[in-house]
């Protein structure tokens, strides 16, 4: 897993956009979730103050986003939930500590919770993955909703750049269940970020195992190891 520099992304995006406009009549529905940003949510304990912060750090000490305690101010949304929108580059090698300036979880001298895209936390850790897009609360009639879902982000190697103009399917099994039928479920494509995405409901399962195919001979099964994720993970595969 790696993050690439933004100039490279920009160039590639430009090329791929040009391709799409000039060469491809493909029409797709917009991605089911936001690809530039992601949000985390925290359900505040009742006895905490109303100003909540998320302190985000990396266990790699060279990789601190913001060193000053207490961290980023979170926005109060509804029913005691707070939200913070972040860019993808802050995931997945980071940890988060929530605080009101006096109290904190996890406690002093304990390791933070794993920073996970779209995760909803309470004081015990992650309690679900949100269905919502970041900033959803600007629509007053939309409520925070979460569950045991996998929001999968997948970007294949650019060595097969023509893949970006094709369909991509997620061939997967949930927990110890059966694999879905080949080629799998059609993913949504975002030409701007070149990520394929899909949301999969994991029900009561603790894990998901995935491979990806274009249905025409391209298979990415992670060098025969498949992509395995525990529930409430960063379901993020960037092989660009
Ligand atoms: C940080 O923690 C994650 C998960 O706990 C681990 O996979 C990763 O290797 C760690 N990174 C460093 C630099 O220690
Ligand atoms: C945190 O969420 C879990 C899972 O929904 C729940 O069982 C637990 O009671 C919650 N803890 C608090 C302190 O609200
Ligand atoms: C706001 O949210 C409601 C409920 O999810 C939805 O039906 C409606 O289309 C949304 N409005 C806008 C402008 O997105």
UniProtKB/TrEMBL annotation:
> The organism sits in which domain of life?
Eukaryota
Show the Pfam families listed in the entry.
CBM26, CBM_25
Per the UniProt entry, the signal peptide is 1-23
Which terms does the record give in the GO molecular function aspect? starch binding
Q: Which UniProt keywords apply?
A: Signal
Q: Which residues form the Carbohydrate binding module family domain?
A: 147-232
> What is the protein name for this chain?
Carbohydrate binding module family 25 domain-containing protein
């Amino acid at each position: 897993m790696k993050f690439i520099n933004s100039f490279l992304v920009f160039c590639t995006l430009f090329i791929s956009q040009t391709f799409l406009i000039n060469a491809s009549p493909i029409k797709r529905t917009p991605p089911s979730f936001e690809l530039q940003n992601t949000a985390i949510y925290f359900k505040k304990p009742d006895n905490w103050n109303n100003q909540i912060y998320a302190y985000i750090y990396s266990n790699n000490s060279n990789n601190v986003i913001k060193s000053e305690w207490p961290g980023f101010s979170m926005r109060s949304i509804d029913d005691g939930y707070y939200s913070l929108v972040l860019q993808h580059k802050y995931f997945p090698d980071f940890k988060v500590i929530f605080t009101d300036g006096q109290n904190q979880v996890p406690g002093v001298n304990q390791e933070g919770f794993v920073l996970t895209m779209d995760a909803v936390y309470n004081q015990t850790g992650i309690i679900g993955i949100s269905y919502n897009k970041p900033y959803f609360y600007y629509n007053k009639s939309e409520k925070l909703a979460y569950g045991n879902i996998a929001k999968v982000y997948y970007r294949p190697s650019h060595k097969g750049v023509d893949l970006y103009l094709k369909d991509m399917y997620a061939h997967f099994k949930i927990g110890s269940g059966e694999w879905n039928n080949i080629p799998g479920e059609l993913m949504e494509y975002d030409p701007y970020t070149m990520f394929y995405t899909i949301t999969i409901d994991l029900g009561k399962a603790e894990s998901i195992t995935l491979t990806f195919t274009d249905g025409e001979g391209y298979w990415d099964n992670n060098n025969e190891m498949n992509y395995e994720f525990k529930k409430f993970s960063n379901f993020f595969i960037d092989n660009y």
